[in-house]
Amino acid sequence: HRARSVNGVPVPLEQLDDMAERFNFVASTSELHLLKMEFLELKYRLLSLLVLAESKLKSWIIKYGRRESVELLLQNYISVIENSKFFEQYEVTYQILKRAAEMYAKANGSVEEAENVMKFMNETTAQWRNLSVEVRSVRSMLEEVIANWDRYSSTVASLQAWLEDAEKMLNQPEHAKKDFFRHLPHWIQQHTAMNDAGNFLIETCDETISRDLKQQLLLLNGRWRELFMKVKQYARADEFDRMRKEYLDSVATLSTFADCTNGKFSVPVEVSFLNVKMFIQDLEDIKQKVPVMEAQYKIITRTAQLVTKEVPQEEVNEMLATMTGIKAQLSKTKECCPVLLYEAQQLLSPLEELEKQITYFYESLEKVNEIISALNPEVQPAAVFKQNHQDLVAYQENCKKALSLIERNSQGILKFLASSKMLQHFDPLMLQKKVTEIQVTFQDMVKKTGDWRKNVEANSHLMKQFEESRAELEKVLQIANGYLEEKGNPEELLRKHTEFFSQLDQRVLNAFLKACDELTDILPEQEQHSLQEAVRKLHKQWKANTDHFGKSCPICEPVAFNIHKSRCPRGLLLM
């Protein structure tokens, strides 16, 4: 275009302009052409899937042949549709085509072309909707044909063999025929199944096979009809035995239910939370079973009507009496169960509250027993003893409050039972016994805690005496030690010692020893050791001081020794 020539040969200007115009047109429309080609490619790919489905469908919905050929069709269907994921392929292709169609119609700008594209998409969608339903139903149809071939083949084989045996039995004695033909209802079912399967195959198979099936069924049905007319009375006898057994089984079930409900309405129930809760659960089960039992009663009534036509009058009267009794019990159950259930539920909440109060009473009682059974409460620190005493009072008060609630609630429960007409079989004896036991237990606890307080107060007094006498004795020993360890003028020291010891009261030691004896009497053996150690320590101190005085007392010269010793506190333990 720039040279305006080709190999030196000039090109006319008009031709160059025409070529440039054509080239520009191709360049400007190439993107639209690409979109159109992508749309067309997907369009014909989708159409190929539709054509494949239609052609395969025609080969699958035909008049069928023998079982083997139908099995091959089913395998072909599985290979084409399921193994290749045909429906998934179509859905993916359709979604891609839908987006390509939208892009092409938008880029083209032509209203007519856009309408053509949308028309194709709508028609394809409608076509696939109908086609996919038919394709999806092919497998179930093929499987049904195969199942009917299996059913037909098996029933024909078994029925032919049975007909041969049955035809031979016609010449046998009556009891043998009756025994052989007692399963006739089963063969009636087999005969019906054979005809159902055969008629289905006649409708779905090709003409040749249908003709063969019709001929075979005609022969078998002829043999069956001829035989059945001679032995149909045995089917009736077997049917009677079946109905009789059904009647007896149902009567047994209904009688068991009636006996169970009658027991729940009359057998004594000991009043407690768990027993009443279990009773309510049983009533709820009975209430749920009542509609089922009523339905079963209606069924057995119809069965009984058929059975009564074949039995003696005496047995008929017995059956009618049985059915009347069952009906009366069902009516009673239906009427009484909701009322009884409601009143029992009214009782459950107070009993649950009573159980909680009883549990709380015994928990508090256990705490009381822990406190009053503790070893040596009198030797506990004052703060600990005070806290225990406060706890004891609190737990005792809890027991008292719990007992009051127990008595009030139990009276309310007993009053409710006395006023109820439906709960007359509820036995309150165990509840009353339990309340009485709690009352006795509470009185015993009150007595024990009173004795415990008296004992603790007495023991505390003895402990106080012991502590005071020990403190007094230790004080005297401390002063005596101070005098004996003092140094100075012997005559002055002798005067001080004489003055001190002349005023010393022998009863200080005696009071301490007496307090020791009294305290030892109340302490358990394992606790006496610490007390004995304290007394032994003081004795050892007395003895050590006495030995020290005899050896080195600076004022106890031979002339004055006897006089001084008689007044020296270190000699007190030797007296």
Number of strands: 4
- CATH topology name of the largest domain, in short, is Methane Monooxygenase Hydroxylase, Chain G, domain 1
**Biggest sheet: strands, sense, closure?**
2 strands, antiparallel
CATH class of the largest domain: Mainly Alpha
**Which regions are unreliable across 5 or more consecutive residues at pLDDT < 50?**
546-575
- What's the number of helices? 15
Strand fraction equals: under 5%
Could you describe the 3D structure shown?
This protein is mostly helical. The chain folds into five domains: 11-147, Methane Monooxygenase Hydroxylase, Chain G, domain 1 (Up-down Bundle), CATH 1.20.58.60; 170-235; 239-346, Methane Monooxygenase Hydroxylase, Chain G, domain 1; 364-458; 486-564. 85% of the residues lie in helices and 1% in strands. It is built from 15 helices and four strands. The chain has helices spanning 13-60, 67-83, 86-108, 111-169, 174-180, 184-204, 207-266, 273-307, 313-372, 382-419, 429-485, 490-503, 507-522, 528-552, 561-567; strands at residues 5-6, 9-10, 269-270, 426-427. It has a two-stranded antiparallel sheet. Strands 3-4 form a two-stranded parallel ribbon. Helix 1 packs antiparallel against helix 3 (86-108). It is flat. Mean pLDDT is 80; it is low at 546-575.
Jot down its keywords.
5 domains; Methane Monooxygenase Hydroxylase, Chain G, domain 1; two-stranded parallel ribbon; 575 residues; disordered C terminus; mainly alpha; single chain; 15 helices
